[in-house]
Amino acid sequence: MSKTHYSVLRVYYDGVCPRCRRDRVRYERWAGEAGDRVAWCDVTEHQQMLRDKGVDPQAALLSLHVEEDGGRIVEGIDAYILLMQRVPRLRPLARLIGLPGLKPLLRWCYDGWVRRRLIRQGRLP
Fold it and tell me: What is the pLDDT of residues 84-94, one digit of tens each?
């Protein structure tokens, strides 16, 4: 049986957010060797890098952004799908959240949660 080879995925996440940090640790634990092909970048520490790639750092705080090897940047639920597809136990969930009827609802819920969290932390004007 051959292993699936993934290119490096750069994940721009909110390193200030305790839940985001816990999610990262959980992902790394579940991913095993596949986790070696994920580069985690705290949005607050990589603002200029994001700007150079045409991404507003504030937008990257409001929605998960990932960058594939070729430089293509994907955000929101599609970013989560790319990340989750690398972990066998998360692949069924990645397929589920990608369903056309569910995806917009999840996006709305996630966006609302992130906005409330950032407002509560005083990090969203």
Answer: 999 999 999 99
